Every structure is written in structure tokens, then in C-alpha cells.
Predict the structure.
Amino acid sequence: MIQHRPLAQIFAIPLVIAIASTVGLISALVGDGWWDAVSWAALGLPVLLYLVFVWRRQPN
Amino acid sequence: MLLLCITGLPLIFHEQIDDLLHEQVKAAEVPAGTPQANLDRLLANALAQAPGKVPHFLIWDRDDPNAMFVSVGPTIDADPTKNLLIRMDSHTGAYLDAPDVTARFTYIMLKLHTDMFAGLPGKLFLGLMGILFCVAIISGIVVYAPSMRKLRFGAYRGHRTRVVRWLDVHNLAGILLVAWTLVVGFTGVINTWADLVVKLWQYGQLTEMTAQYRDRPVPSKLTSINAAVEVASRAVPGMTASFVAFPGSFFSSKSHYAVFLHGETPLTSRLLKPALIDAETGKLTDTRDMPWYVSTLFISQPLHFGDYGGMPLKIVWALLDILTIFILVTGIYLWWRRRKAGVSQERAIANAASIDNPVLSS
């Protein structure tokens, strides 16, 4: 069991993901080609992470 | 919200679904660089197919450069949302077809998604729902902190009761998608104000741009629309025509062709710029950038539809939408369990997070 975690720790990973999503939302607006690819990857990341976490769910 | 997420899902792929479900006449295949048909001839061909109707708009198809639409109504001041769309070949100027889109699956989904067949009140109601959705997301972020105080990111307590397990996946999916759901939710809200934004623009900028024409009579004979589009394209270099509003129609004054042009990048292709052409003399009278509130609406559209990064982005959009449906369903379940049990969720979480107590975690 982990001890009480401070807010900064709780929101560290969510913040990184939110920033990545925002970059993904904007990049496809800015240009085509690579910009689109960045957007697919950045917005696909949350979906992928969700699947990874649900896949290797385990009692902790 | 569930209704919006579910009807939104097929709308992401509306073009593909329409292609699949409905036959449409293909425009002629032409080599790249083939010049466009003369628009006056194209218009005459279209009107020959709709006797007694008057043209409101001439629209270039965003998705198919070989086709364009002529939107016609019974009179020039008739409600343009009831217009008939005539599809024309943009290179040969020939008539293709005029399908009744209102019977289509995608149209019904779109109506359910935007106004539930209730017009402006329906839109504003759904806009309010959208605002509540955003509020719910923010409150979700707030309660995420206490529930995760003793848990690692993405923790899943597989050996606990269903409430706890569902809370864990709800929290995980919710926090992963938070940026996307907020953006799609809020841009959706902005889209529900589209009608009001257009009205504001009509009374603001459009009235200003056409002020000196206010007392002029309606032109008896219109100049060439082909020439009008050419004049507008020359006046605004680097932009291409998106649609033309005929004099007296919803998006113009009674004396002008309003040619709306768009840029070439994914962003600027959404930002329209009007160029007004005097329909009696064929001369440019004014062209201005749209005010900020219209630009905001234009930018919020792709961010809501997810149609600005090709097919892969649409697929990602659909996956995110499915996950959002899942968040909503687990959220409803958690709320319902909490009501039924009368037990504070906070306490359930606190209990679940502390040392496993066999009595509490049956």
C-alpha cells in the first residue's frame, strides 16, 4: 500500500496525457502529413494506455 | 449525453456511410488541372432541373472536387434549411442528381445529435446539456484526487467488489480522456450557438458592409456569377471559393453576390472570408475577415467533428467516443449504486483503499 500521495503526484501523469492530447488536437489543424501523424499518435495514446492498463490489471 | 455520444459515433463516418447506403451519380473522371465549367452554364443546367425554383447558394463540395451543389428554394426569402440540393459536375457543368437527404440514416442521426428535431430550442437545450457535461468532467477531476490518494495511477483492484472495480476503470478512462472530452464537449456547445452567431454577423458586419446599398432597389438583372467568382478570387489571392450566396438570400444583401472564400491549410480552410460583388455592375464592393466570434465558431467545428486529420484521426475519434460512452455508463452505474446503497462513495473508496477488510469488501 502506498502512503497518502500529494496532489502533484496524483495529477502528474494525467497532466502529461492532457498536454499530449492538446498537442494532438492542435497539430492536425496546423498542417498535413507529419502534423496529422503526430495528432493520431498523441490522441491514440490515451486509448492505448487504457487498453494496456486494463489488459494487465492485477490486484495490488 | 449518452444519446449525443451514440448518435455522434456514426456521424464521424457520415461520408462513408452515405457512400455505402446511397447510390449517387459519379462525376466525370478528369485529369488534374482540368478547368472548372463555366458557372453560369452550370447554374442554368441546374435550374432547368428545378422549374419554378430560385437559386440561394452555389456550393463547392469540400470532399469531392469533381462535384458542386446548387441550393434552390421556392422563393429567395424561403427558409434555406428546407432547400433542395442539386448536385452538379463541376467540370462538365452537367446535372448529376438531387437526392432527398432528409430520409437518410445520417440525416436522422444528425438531427437527433444537433436539435432532436426541435429547431433552435432543441439546439440550445443540447447546448445546455453540453455545458453540464463539461461541469461533470471538471467535478470528475476534483473527486479524482481523493479517490486516488492511496492508489497508483491506473490501479485496478481486481479482487474487490464490482463498485470498486467499476470505479477504478471509470477513473482511469475518465482521467485519460479528460482533455479530449472537454474540448469536444465545449466545441459542441459553441456549435449549438451557430444560428445565433450567424444572426449576429448578419446584423453586425454584413449590415455594415452593405450599408450604402440599403435603399437601392433589387437588381432587375443579375450579372454573371462566373465573373463574380473570378473577381472575388482575384481580390483575395491565395484563397479559393467555398460558396456563393445569391442576392437576397440568407447570407447576402439583396444587391450582392457574397462569395465566401477559404484558405489552403487545414486551419485556414475552415476560416471563410466574404467578398461582396455588386450584382448589377459585377464590381467588388468590400471584403473583410470575419469577426472573432465567427472565427471561433469555424475553428470549433473541426475540433468537434474530428474530420481534419484523415481517416486515422476519425478512427481515433471513434475509439475516444466509445470510451466516453463507457465512462458515462460506468458513471451512471456508480451514481445509481451510491443512491441505492446510501453509502458515501468517498467512504467506500477510503475503505477500499485502506487495508483489505473482509467484512467490508464482501
Remarks:
- The helical segments of chain A are 7-30, 34-55.
- Chain A has a mean pLDDT of 87.
- Residues 25-55 of chain A form one domain.
